Prior knowledge:
The protein is mostly helical. The chain has helices at 2-28, 44-66, 87-95, 99-117, 120-129, 136-140, 146-173, 176-194, 203-228, 236-243. It is elongated and about 70 Å long.
Amino acid sequence: xxxxxxxxxxxxxxxxxxxxxxxxxxxxxxxxxxxxxxxxxxxxxxxxxxxxxxxxxxxxxxxxxxxxxxxxxxxxxxxxxxxxxxxxxxxxxxxxxxxxxxxxxxxxxxxxxxxxxxxxxxxxxxxxxxxxxxxxxxxxxxxxxxxxxxxxxxxxxxxxxxxxxxxxxxxxxxxxxxxxxxxxxxxxxxxxxxxxxxxxxxxxxxxxxxxxxxxxxxxxxxxxxxxxxxxxxxxxxxxxxxxxxxx
Length: 247
């Protein structure tokens, strides 16, 4: 009988303790109306930091991939083709059996882009640091490529200005004109005889435009990877900000 008297209070105390613990656990993980655990709310500053971090990671990865030998040449998505404005030059050059010169020119065109891209990282990083996002949540929730699109709209003209001299230096380093001049000179010589229009497109402008375009393509690819793949979120802020899209 004494055993029963002692046991009952202990049992009641245990039940009360369990109830208190359950209530405390419930307070820590309050479910939302959908039944999922509510995540801490993000501030706009956190979202902006996450977007900048995502673009920084994307830029670094993109530059590392494109600034090496064959980074442009062997990547069909961003490879620089023969300038469209001078496609007639290519057609004539192939008619004249200058296939080797055409191939060397196209290769060197991409080598110039690969060389120039080596100088791109600090330019892009500065642009990202100075990025002011009015509505970070709109870009975060804007879907694939939204952050890259915003950066492109805000920085392309500045990047062209900063990038152009780097491209000019690169075209000189890889001696691009040595492969271009024989082709264009022969073509323009033929046009002098036939009365056709001579051509000499601005190769530096062409390379600048397509190199920047190719880099942004790669950055967008990296951004979308971070949006979709938790393993690509290599910092705490990336995990917190982009993890909110899937929770």
